[in-house]
Design a protein that fits this description.
Length: 171
């Protein structure tokens, strides 16, 4: 009996809160930081990958809000006419300070089907920072970058054939 209760609770928690479509998502993040330590430069880089579920909700502004979660981490971000922005996601290397300037934030959103509720989608987001002065004036950070890529397939959508899925999700 306790086993079934766990399954029911897990399915209930995985369901979208407001009727948004549910997606199976695979994601990858990469981050790198170059810091000044005692006059020397130290570079640290790392990658994380994960799987889970995601929702894509249309906001009254017309912007989409992506939220994902799974055993390997969770995150969210907004997708508007200018592309992805304000993304949070797991990274192997702590970055983000000092904040990125607007010209070093970019990304793409590629949807198959209705853009507000696509059958499949891919999102790519990247941001970075480059210190243009003495490192001590930039919290001893010379440069940093972080990238996020996710591909998702709508769980309740009719499964595309293998050729379509490979072409759509770049596998």
């Amino acid at each position: 009996m306790a086993g079934w209760l766990g399954v029911v609770l897990a399915l209930g928690l995985a369901s979208p809160a407001h009727g948004e479509p549910l997606y199976a998502v695979e994601w990858r993040s990469f981050s790198r930081a170059v810091r000044e330590k005692g006059g020397d430069l130290a570079t640290e880089a790392g990658e994380q990958r994960g799987r889970g579920t995601a929702t894509l909700a249309a906001l009254p502004s017309g912007t989409l809000r992506l939220e994902f979660r799974g055993e390997d981490g969770s995150g969210s971000g907004l997708i508007g006419p200018g592309g992805p922005r304000d993304f949070t996601f797991p990274t192997a290397v702590a970055v983000g300070v000092p904040p990125p300037p607007a010209h070093l934030i970019s990304g793409t959103f590629e949807a198959r089907g209705d853009p507000a509720q696509p059958d499949t989608f891919r999102v790519y987001y990247i941001e970075g920072f480059i210190c243009h002065t003495a490192p001590d004036r930039c919290s001893h950070v010379v440069a940093w970058e972080r990238q996020f890529t996710a591909t998702a397939v709508r769980i309740d959508a009719q499964e595309p054939n293998d050729a379509e899925a490979s072409a759509t999700l770049g596998r």
